[in-house]
Write a structure and sequence with these properties.
The complex is a heterodimer of chains A (about 60) and B (about 600).
Chain A: E1 3-5, E2 16-17, E3 24-25, E4 28-33, E5 39-42, H1 47-59
Antiparallel strand pairs in A: 1-4, 2-3, 4-5
Chain B: H1 2-6, H2 15-39, H3 43-46, E1 51-56, E2 62-65, H4 73-87, E3 97-100, E4 112-121, E5 124-134, E6 163-167, E7 170-171, H5 173-182, H6 186-214, H7 216-239, E8 244-252, E9 262-271, E10 274-278, H8 294-309, H9 319-322, E11 323-326, H10 344-364, E12 379-385, E13 392-397, H11 427-433, E14 436-443, E15 459-465, E16 469-475, E17 496-500, E18 508-509, H12 510-514, E19 521-528, E20 532-536, H13 551-560, H14 565-572, H15 584-591
Parallel strand pairs in B: 10-11
Antiparallel strand pairs in B: 1-2, 1-5, 3-4, 3-6, 4-5, 6-7, 8-9, 9-10, 12-13, 12-16, 14-15, 15-20, 16-19, 17-18, 17-20
Helix pairs in contact in B: 2-6, 4-8, 5-6, 6-7, 8-10
Classes of the chains: A alpha+beta (about 60), B alpha+beta (about 600).
Chain lengths: ~60, ~600
């Protein structure tokens, strides 16, 4: 999956957040398809792996 | 520090050189800090040391920092990178200085302003020098710019996205005029901003000397290797922790707007040489200003980790490669625009950091952790016209409290919360700079959480208004839920913020006087000459069962006035005779269940 530009105009001062970790998205985001089929906008490519790690521990016994 | 560096293979730049370069870079940051401290106008710089100084690589990645305010670590790691990415490196020119304070662009909260300056060699940016500092007044709904009842970021002061404060070495006057017009004490801002600028110029000069000695290529490589080295060291320490998921939670009394606790829930996942701090189960963001921007939660997590397993590891961008923080936007640990968040840095961060250090990593490394400190910055803000000068003044004061007992020693007395390393403002400075008279400034006896190692003591400060009117605000916490003890240690004591009106006999809480929602969070109360404020800061929790404390230490505590004889018997099961000497027989009886303690 690719990196995409946020494409904000200079007068747009709103903020976008990583849909995996909450970090800010600046100018561009990494887009990937999550295991649940949704498309996620992430701050870095490693977040695809991070999401898998989180899911693994959240569904694990005691997770 | 050197032990770590010399013990590892440092690659093409040899190990000794790398160690020396690291020390030189940190020394530059230290010199930048001294410059800032000595030239600032505001005591929050010169006395409080509420700032950080930074050297960054050509991409904005942190290379070195002075060991001043770790609470700014998250911003130090990310804010410059984001500024450079947002405005584009092509928009930096020699002599430019960029400034921003936006908590929605990597800042921790709006009073903290970041400046960065590019270092060019010929036409190429080879590094940046930067700093972050807390300006005492930046406008907004309350003097001191710390409105405890703010419900959005627009009430918290003037928000600056990244803008040039200097261009080609010349001040960008339009920006200066906007800033100074919105600050209540523009002369102080002028001085403090120039102190920041001077610090950058010191850093630039020293870094150029280093570049002249070593060359761009060697320094470039050293920057990268230092970051790699930190990553490798931290991975090794994390890998030594047992894999698993470790959980904890803590709360805030209220958010200043609603009388409801707000809970932070943390799951720490350790897997191999990676560690993830997951705050996904935390409460939604509050209406009031106790929310943390992402970088604040990042600071809390990383500092908690570094304090426990990071001793001697250089602090730089390598840290963030090992530890990931997950805090969904819209939660109390990652506020979403336009949520209020000025208190996130001073209340949320210490709460989360000590949760990481004590409740989570304490499970794994009890010999390294500590019970909770008073864990509030007890921010006390005020402003008015000083009758001695006729000029408007405003100040942001943070109060010392007691630290938690730890495995090897008692908690420190009367010290600023551990997340920020800041210093207390002396009474003499206080009374010289602002129209207050001190009646009392003392350690608060019998307040510390009892333990094998007791908590540190908080303080009691009584101040009298010496002007016609002073407007005060307070943003604190731990007025309802005390700091926790560990391993059988007792909890610490609570925050109290009280008022005695001129001519009245007794103190009562501000909450009782004015019918406030919160006992520890309010904005813009007008006090008049002769009114007295009493600030009682919380004491730290104890570590270990108090009945196992060395009786000689308890006797010493009584002699020093930290603990009363009654408390010595009740909590520590230690009996002293009338001269204050230890009564060993009765103490032994009491501790073995054969005697009676005081009721």
């Amino acid at each position: 999956m690719p990196w995409r530009e946020l494409g904000k105009s200079w007068h747009d001062t709103t903020v976008d957040y990583c849909e995996v970790c909450g970090n800010l998205l600046i100018r561009a985001y990494f887009e990937f398809r999550a295991p649940d089929g949704t498309t996620r906008r992430a701050c870095c490519e490693d977040d695809e792996r991070l999401l898998a790690l989180l899911e693994r521990h959240r569904v694990a016994p005691g997770g | 520090m050197a032990t770590h560096l010399l013990a590892d293979d440092a690659g093409a730049v040899d190990r000794v050189t790398l160690t020396l370069l690291h020390r030189q870079l940190v020394n530059i940051c230290d010199e930048m800090a001294v410059s800032m401290m000595r030239t600032a106008y505001s005591p929050i710089f010169s006395e409080g040391l509420d700032f950080s100084t930074l050297i960054l690589d050509r991409h904005g990645g942190l290379v070195a920092t002075a060991g001043l305010n770790p609470a700014m670590l998250g911003a130090s790691l990310y804010a410059a990178t984001w500024v450079i990415r947002e405005v584009g490196p092509d928009n930096f020119s020699p002599g430019d200085v960029w400034i921003h304070n936006d908590p929605y662009r990597g800042g921790s909260h709006m009073p903290e302003h970041m400046m960065i300056m590019p270092i060019f060699v010929e036409d190429e940016i080879v590094a940046y020098v930067g700093n972050i500092a807390h300006l005492a007044e930046i406008g907004g709904m309350a003097p001191g710019s710390f409105a405890a009842t703010a419900t959005d970021v627009f009430q918290e002061g003037l928000r600056l996205p990244p803008v040039r404060l200097f261009q080609g070495g010349e001040p960008v006057r339009d920006i200066w005029r906007i800033m100074l017009s919105n600050h209540r004490t523009p002369a102080n801002s002028w001085g403090d901003l120039h102190a920041m600028l001077g610090s950058l110029r010191v850093g630039e000069r020293r870094l150029r000397q280093l570049l002249a000695e070593r060359g761009v290529a060697e320094l470039d490589e050293a920057f990268a290797r230092l970051q790699d080295f930190t990553e490798a060291c931290l991975r090794r320490e994390v890998a030594a922790l047992p894999d698993g998921v470790y959980r904890a939670e803590d709360c805030f009394d209220d958010d200043g707007i609603t009388d409801r606790r707000h809970v932070v829930r943390l799951a720490v996942i350790v897997e191999g040489d990676e560690i993830v701090f997951d705050y996904s189960a935390s409460d939604p963001q509050a209406i009031g200003p106790i929310n943390a921007p992402y970088v604040v939660t990042l600071s809390a997590s990383l500092n908690g980790l570094l304090y426990i397993i990071g001793e001697g590891i250089p602090v730089n961008a390598g840290v963030a490669r090992v530890a990931r923080v997950v805090a969904p936007a819209g939660s109390i640990c990652c506020v979403k625009l336009p949520g209020a968040c000025v208190g996130g840095q001073t209340e949320n961060q210490p709460r989360v950091m000590e949760m990481v250090m004590g409740s989570v990593l304490g499970q794994l490394l009890p010999e390294r952790c500590a019970a909770a400190s008073g864990n509030t910055s007890l921010n006390f803000l005020f402003g008015g016209v000083d009758p001695r000068s006729g000029e408007y003044f405003a100040h942001y004061h943070f109060e010392a409290n007691g630290w938690g007992g730890r495995a090897t020693s008692d908690g420190n007395n009367a010290q600023i919360v551990p997340h920020a390393n800041c210093r207390n403002t002396p009474v003499e400075i206080f009374e010289t700079r602002w129209p207050w008279i001190h009646h009392r400034y003392a350690l608060n006896r019998d307040s510390a959480g009892a333990g094998r190692h007791r908590g540190g003591l908080g303080i009691e400060r009584v101040l009298e208004v010496a002007a016609d009117v002073i407007t005060v605000s307070v943003l604190a916490d731990r007025a309802k839920v005390p700091p926790w003890g560990l391993f059988g240690g007792q909890p610490g004591s609570l925050t109290r913020v009280e008022l005695r009106r001129a001519g009245e006999r007794d103190f009562a809480s501000f909450q009782e006087h004015f019918g406030l929602v919160s006992p520890s969070k309010f904005s813009n109360v007008r006090l008049v000459r002769g009114d007295q404020v009493r600030l009682v800061s919380p004491s730290g929790g104890g570590y270990g069962d108090p009945a196992t404390r060395d009786p000689a230490l308890v006797a010493a505590d009584v002699r020093e006035g930290f603990v009363s004889r009654e408390s010595a018997e009740r909590y520590y099961r230690v009996v002293l005779d009338d001269s204050g000497a230890l009564d060993e027989r009765r103490t032994r009886e009491l501790r073995t269940g054969g005697g009676d303690a005081l009721a």
